[in-house]
Write the structure tokens for this entry.
Amino acid sequence: MRAHRHSRSALAGLVVLLTILAGSASLTGTPSAAAAASTATGSLSPNLGPMGSTSTVNGRGFPKNTAGTVTIGSTSLAMKTRADGNFSTDLTVPDATTRLLPVTATLGKVTASTYFTVTFAAVSTAADPSDATLTQQPSMTSAPISTSKLRFGVATPGGALANSELDAVAVLVNENPSIVMSYKDFNQSVSIAELDSVRARGATSLITWEPWAWGGGINQPAYSSDNITAGAHDAYLTKWGQALATWGKPVMLRYGHEMNGNWYPWSDGVNGNTTGDYAAAWRHVHDVVVAAGATNVSWVWSPNIPYTRSTPLTGLYPGATYVDVVALDGYNWGTSAAWSTWQAPATLFDAGLAQLRTLAPGKQIIIAETASAEAGGSKAEWNTALVAYLAEQTDVTGFVWFHFLKETDWRINSSTTSTTALNKALAAR
């Protein structure tokens, strides 16, 4: 995607606002449920902790003197609002096999809901106990990882360690993603904790490795392809290779994606790069990382879907021996931007897939970034069509959903119909 989107959402702390899901009632002498729903707020404090701990739910602005329930997981507690429409009650976190427990307050016809995050005991991921490091146990959701040929993956704002975000996606679609994509620039080292966390989920890490400094703009001469090929960053590349080799498990590495566009400084035609520079830099990066012992890496070459005046792919491909997986990034922007129109999945991907098959015959293909806007058509229908379309492509082995609220609402749950459609489409594939 063109715009930079790697800033992590600020941590909300231990207090979270309850989201009002519904509320309507006839007008009476006291404020209606609908009016209460428009002003009701609540907090859950703390909003994370172990099983058996206590969390206090405080509500304000709900219907007055109204009986109802607060539910956490499968446990419900009767309660009643005071004359001012407020309430406060303590909940004990029940035993759980999932990291996210829904917490729902229902008073009359007003329902508010949020999630409590269950923290599980830390576990060691080291084979040798004397070399052990502790990492937080990730998801224990009951949602499965599909055995379908077409793998489902996701990228979320918090990255590979944001297990609550990944769990929330699993709850939405009733499937744990088998690919978790994260982003790194050239100022960051390999995070073994992230690799371990994703592996503990049963998933594969797909790291998008961007040769620039985030926030530095498109003109960054220090990261020109010529400088990379000349060895200016070899010490850094070697450290990456050594770290990945030491870790030793399968990992997918997506270097310099969307190189056929003009919005990143590694593309030919910008930042001092000329024709052929990108492919030469790719080969150099590959060789340095492999020389450091990282033979466990699958190299993912990932252009944007071709568009009018995009750089031809033929001059950007580093060669079959340097690439393990080819990929495409493609979004249905709908009418969310002034320049965009609604595009069905086949319209979006047909031409790019044909070019990949000609350029890299026999290579595994994935869709490394995709999502749809709501504006301009039915996102629910688009989601259904996407999964069906990709499942029909015998050489496409997976897709990664860009679950972000950014230029538009790309998230799976931008609407209830979108969530339901993707859930059903994944189950049917």
The domain at 123-428 is CATH 3.20.20.80 (TIM Barrel).
